[in-house]
Amino acid sequence: MGTSSCGDGEKQRIEDEEEQYGVLLYYKYTSVPDLDELVAFYESSCNSLGLLGRVRLSTHGVNVTVGGKLSALEEHIAAAKSNCLFEGTDFKLASCQHPLNDKVSQECGFTSLSIRVVEELVTFSTCPLLKPPEVSNAGKHLSAEEFHSVLQSANEQPDGDGKSENKELVLLDARNLYETRIGKFESENVETLDPEIRQYSDLPTWIDQNAEKLKGKNVLMYCTGGIRCEMASAYIRSKGTEFENTFQLYGGIQRYLEQFPNGGFFKGKNFVFDHRISVGSSKEDIIGCCLLCNNTFDDYSPRCRCRLCRMLVLVCNHCQVKGNDYVCELCRKHGKGQVPLSLVPSSQPCESKGDDTRRKLRILCLHGFRQNASGFKGRTGSLAKKLKNIAELVFIDAPHKLQFIYQTATSPPPGACSKKFAWLVSPDFDKPSETGWTVAQSQFDPLQYQNQTEGFDKSLAYLKKAFAEKGPFDGILGFSQGAAMAAAVCGKQEQLLGEIDFRFCVLCSGFTPWPLMEKTERGSIKCPSLHIFGSQPGKDRQIVTQASSDLAGLFDEGCATIIEHDFGHIIPTKSPYIDEIKAFLNQFV
């Protein structure tokens, strides 16, 4: 019996390994009557079936990208279809290789299951729109066959003047620039409009600025799977009757390539937001090129990114250098940064250099509330010593000078004391008196940071000056209130290009600052980040654990790393924590 049991177990293991893996994408815009019930469905279904990936839920519908065994995905589809909420949903299921536990899988969120409730299924605009689009007014869906037929007819029938270009028809790509660089629709007689946007939330601005190009035209929109066209086409149509003829490719490029395996009018590869990275046609044609040498190249698996805006860039194997110090075409176009000489391709191989010649990272360090640069430097002495071969830590005082405080039962201590500073202050903030001392109005309030809602603009201007005079800096490290300030800067990273340029942040015992509280959605901050905080509630008596966890949730999980420790309001420097800190920083050396 024992032998048979062992054999059965081995047989099951082999069957599990051989079972095909797949990726499932689907979305549905619909009114969700009970969001809690929907969350419970996904938690139960995905966890029981071993599915990993991203599930985004809102009162307006669902947006799902998950991976797992094909049989498990098919079972999940069957469960979803039994709910009338998903009637008419296009479930896009594709077989593929099992993802490896590597950087690509981690960035794409395919090493864990993330179920989040969000305001928007896809963030259409970072700023409130005067007239938000109604998805019910989205452009008419065209099947892959219909979409293809329209383009084919445009090629076969020149306009009335005998010219080859069809001026009544335009193709509009609703995707980001890095996606369009490796694949797009091309039709000889139809103009293709590529907005060249860094992120989807930039599309409304482009539409506003280029409305004349769309006015009175038959607009054919497309994106990866269709969801981005829903809101974007509705926004175009909301501009009036001259924009009504806006259509969208139902099921996106994925369904088109399934219908036309040889590519049809689509050239190159379809960028996808999972471990596959891209999916091509049977032609395997390459339209992308290396950012530096301009040679043909379309592989994003090295995950090279712009050092300023963190957008993915194509850099071929020959041109890749340690440090990922690249500047994307959008940043160059707007004068944000120059290509370092070290990145200019050379016909001669460079001499090998040892690790001791690597440039250290320069990290600007922001102290906590009622602290100063000198004190923070002393408190992080152990950290600086253990990072001495990787990073140089630079410390500055915050701009808001604080009163010295003493309890009523005591008297001000004699002699001089070090000045204390803050990045954010409360609305009733008083500047120091002539003596510099004031009596405490109450006992220490561990939640005082929740009232520190003023002073951000002054601190931001101060940091701009610090970057100009003491920079450049590769990253920002913030502790407690300093972490809150650093997080607020991360939230404005794109607007601050050229003034405060950095590649990563390290946030220790942080909390969500007031500038990020109102409009920042979970996962919307794209800056690579390391979050360090205590794992046990109550041990950090200054910042509650949940506050630090909530702050980490505002950062894109694909580029956020979390280190939870067993201590209090400190930055741990013992193993294994220091090893994890070094591993994060070494990505940028």
From TrEMBL:
Residues 165-265 form the Rhodanese domain. The lineage of its organism: Eukaryota, Viridiplantae, Streptophyta, Embryophyta, Tracheophyta. InterPro entries: AB_hydrolase_fold, FSH-like_dom, Rhodanese-like_dom, Rhodanese-like_dom_sf, Rhodanese_C, TrhO, TRHO_N. This is Rhodanese domain-containing protein.
